[in-house]
């Protein structure tokens, strides 16, 4: 009998009813605080609502394709940034290993070296895996 109602519509209706229920409770129990809060922030809310209607009027497909193009264009720069961060981490890690080794703490030096090497390898591998996974 109710086979024409999809699960998505059913869950949307349940969610809307739940929001309506809690909104009524909020108005009933916290009416004074709510109206004071709304009076203070009315201009901001009007700007947000107006901005929402303007944003809704744009083409979604064009925005998604533009974002896709921009992110693909930034990927090489992002990889170079990851390599630069890896180089800085390598220098800091090398100094840390050198400091532990000279202080006579060989076990801590081994742990620091393993962490340092692992983080540098991780940064390089992540850039390569993302590039091959997304076909960039």
Task: Map the helices and strands.
Layout: H1 7-29, H2 31-56, H3 60-102, H4 106-134
Describe the structure.
The chain is 89% helix and 0% strand. By secondary structure, the protein is mainly alpha-helical. Helix 3 (60-102) runs antiparallel to helix 4. The longest helix has 43 residues, at 60-102.
Pick out the low-confidence regions: none
Q: With helices defined by DSSP (H or I, 4 residues minimum), what is the helix count?
A: 4
Number of distinct beta strands: 0
As a percent range, the share of helical residues equals over 70%
Q: What is Rg?
A: 27 Å
* N-to-C SSE string, H for helix and E for strand: HHHH
Mean pLDDT figure? 80
**Alpha-carbon distance between the termini?**
49 Å
Which structural class do you get from the secondary structure elements? mainly alpha
Q: Any idea what the shape is?
A: elongated
Sheet having the most strands = none
Could you tell me the strand content as a percent range? under 5%
């Amino acid at each position: 009998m109710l086979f024409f109602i999809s699960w998505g519509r059913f869950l949307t209706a349940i969610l809307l009813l739940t929001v309506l229920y809690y909104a009524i409770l909020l108005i009933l129990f916290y009416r004074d605080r709510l109206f004071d809060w709304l009076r203070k922030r009315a201009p901001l809310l009007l700007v947000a609502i107006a901005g929402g209607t303007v944003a809704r009027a744009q083409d979604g497909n064009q925005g998604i394709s533009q974002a896709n193009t921009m992110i693909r264009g930034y990927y090489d720069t992002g990889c170079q940034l990851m390599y630069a961060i890896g180089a800085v981490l390598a220098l800091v890690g090398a100094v840390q290993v050198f400091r532990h080794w000279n202080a006579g703490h060989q076990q801590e030096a081994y742990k620091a070296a393993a962490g340092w090497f692992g983080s540098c390898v991780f940064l390089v591998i992540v850039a390569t895996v993302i590039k091959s996974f997304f076909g960039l």
